Amino acid sequence: MQYQVLISSEKLRQYNLAIDDIDNALQLTNQNTTGGFIDNKGSETLIRNIGRANTLEDLANTVVSNRNAAPVLLKQVAEVKFGGPIKRGDGSFNGKPAVILSIEKQPGSSTIDVTAEALKAIEEIKASLPKNIQINTDVFQQKHFIINSITWFSICTSTTPGTLEIIDFNCSAFERSVNKSLPNILTATCALTPESKWSSR
Fold first, then answer.
1. H or E stretch including 48?
2. pLDDT tens readout for residues 140-161
3. What contacts 21, CB < 8 A, 6 or more positions away?
4. Which secondary-structure segment (H or E) carries 75?
5. Within its chain, how far is the Cα of 170 from the centroid?
6. How many other CB atoms sit within 10 Å of the CB of residue 112?
7. Which terminus, N or C, of the chain has the lesser number of Cβ atoms within 10 Å?
8. What's the CA gap between 89 and 87, in Å, rounded?
9. Which residues pair with 44 in a beta bridge?
């Protein structure tokens, strides 16, 4: 949560003020200063002056300047309200805001099996989501590379002139070797966004 001060340029002109006046007033509103000390029965007690806006109303009542022998308060030249917390990151999909969820498998586990189990779990989650939220699981799946590249393939070798031998391989063993060589490979990424039309990748 943060305080937001939305300044009105029209009201600034009305009171002949500048944005720097607002900035300086806000800085002076929140200050901690030393106040020396007092002697309390042979011991010294330090004094600290705490000038801080503790509520939204305190901030809105900050004196920005004086005009015609009357104080000009912050709420007279700006809208003071609560705003959302400062973003530490952002995600988007197809140009729209989204929450990006990445799933990584444990070392030695099958990428294809983990992806299948993750998709089952996501299907269960969908039932509890608001109607305007959708999950797109086709953003990235490592299993697509494995299935397209090494699940089944053919090796063509010429044994004798004029003949061709085709050998088929089930490469699940090769997938296991890939998993061992890349134990922390990213398994899948999905995006949670407000309702929209998806384009598959």
1. strand 43-51
2. 888 888 777 764 544 444 445 5
3. 64, 65
4. helix 74-77
5. 41
6. 19
7. N
8. 5
9. 39
Q: How far apart are CA 96 and CA 197, in angstroms?
A: 11
Topology of domain 2-83, per CATH? 3.30.2090
| 127 Cβ contact partners less than 8 Å away, ≥ 6 residues apart | none
pTM of the model: 0.44
Residue ranges covered by each domain of the chain: 2-83, 92-194
Question: Using an 8 Å Cβ cutoff, are 192 and 133 in contact?
Answer: yes
User: Would you state the structure tokens that stand for residue 169, as one six-digit string?
Assistant: 């391989």
The torsion angles phi and psi of 197, rounded to 5 degrees, stand at -90, 135
Residue 94 in tokens = 């197809």
| pLDDT tens by residue, 46-80 | 888 887 888 899 899 999 998 888 999 999 999 99
**The one-letter amino acid at 94:** N
